[in-house]
Amino acid sequence: MDTELQQVCARLVEIFQDRSRYKLLLGYRDLEAQAVLNLLQNLLDSPRVKDPKLKNELVVAVQRLSKKSALYPECFVLKNISIEKNSDGSIHALSSGKFGDVWRGSMGGRNVCLKVMRVYRNSKIHELLKAFSCEAVVWSQLQHANILPFYGIYRLEHPSHDRICLVSPWMTNGNIDEFLADEPNADRVALATDIANGLKYLHANNVVHGDLKGANVLVNSSKKACLADFGLSTIRDPEVLALTTTNSSTSCGGTIRWMAPELLNPPETDEPLNTKESDIYAFAGVSYEIFTGHIPFYEVFRDQTVIVKVNRGERPSRPDQATSTKYGLTESIWKLMQDCWLTDPDSRPAAAGIATRLASTPTQRRQSFLSPVSFRAFFAQGTNLESQLQRKELLRLLDISTEPLLEGLSLDYKG
């Protein structure tokens, strides 16, 4: 590591270890916050920064500063995306939800998916932008074969307001339910193992998914399952603020039929929060979809009735022998699902144990897309690390003390 880089990393370590100085760093806004976010993310993306403890602290710092400033690193910004349109010139929305649409586009010869924030006139636009920034920051730090890569943010200009889009690879096979409907003979154990490995990676990095279900598991062209939709994801770390979006169906987020009993009926004194253990409960619900072809409690029409049943200790019904044989639901897999559905969160298996129980040797399948860091290196905008390390006015922002900060800084971080 060269001298300039060593000095910057040493300054940051000192700041991370000093609560007062760290608080001042998180107090930066506007241009100063943007400059620091750019630097921290470029350090994270640099192969020259190898210390895992420092990288973890950088991740936490980016997440916290983004949350407080409603900004995101400029290297996330993408340009020149062509969006698929209808014959009349209108944008073709492939799916729509309460808070956004999904569009298909292309960039540099690659098909991409755009998750688009829908803005209403009376919306709290600043809060929605903050939520999208938080999702982008959480998602951008995740790099694993069973996690849908985050490529960046695209701003679509509009006469009255910009549209903010989160960009990821286009997954030709759709979500896991759609894929299995088209390919019923697919290796369902391998898909469940993919999901367990993705969850294992998230939990090892203190990330709780918060809304695990079949619709949020996508299948790539190599028939590998990838966890997606990190809008309700949270960082469960004592020093990190919970990063959640505004589309939570409850204060903890999630979808009723996949939600653990402690989320549906929390003690009156506690605020329900998604946890690694509630993710494990939801994993059993996804497994139920994979090995039965049904959503949990498919026989029950109303979600409120599902809540009552779960709080009584009931769980989704076991399919008959013919269905079990058809979809490969063995006795050991059903026992695993039951263990994940245990009422006591502490009694549920960890994601690492689930992956081991499902398969001792995971199926090896080719990865079919660029990693997020590689994609940003090819396509993203922003200032590179080398130029940042040479800018004295930027490095002065790291000379934090509890004395009043220097005034009159004139910073231009676009070049």
From TrEMBL:
Keyword line: Kinase, Transferase
GO molecular function: ATP binding; protein serine/threonine kinase activity
PROSITE patterns xrefs: PROTEIN_KINASE_DOM (PS50011), PROTEIN_KINASE_ST (PS00108)
Location of the Protein kinase domain: 88-370
InterPro entries: Kinase-like_dom_sf (IPR011009), Prot_kinase_dom (IPR000719), Ser-Thr/Tyr_kinase_cat_dom (IPR001245), Ser/Thr_kinase_AS (IPR008271), Ser/Thr_Kinases-Pseudokinases (IPR051681)
Gene3D superfamilies: Transferase(Phosphotransferase) domain 1
Keyword Transferase: yes
Stated name of the protein: Kinase-like protein
Source organism (scientific name): Macrolepiota fuliginosa MF-IS2
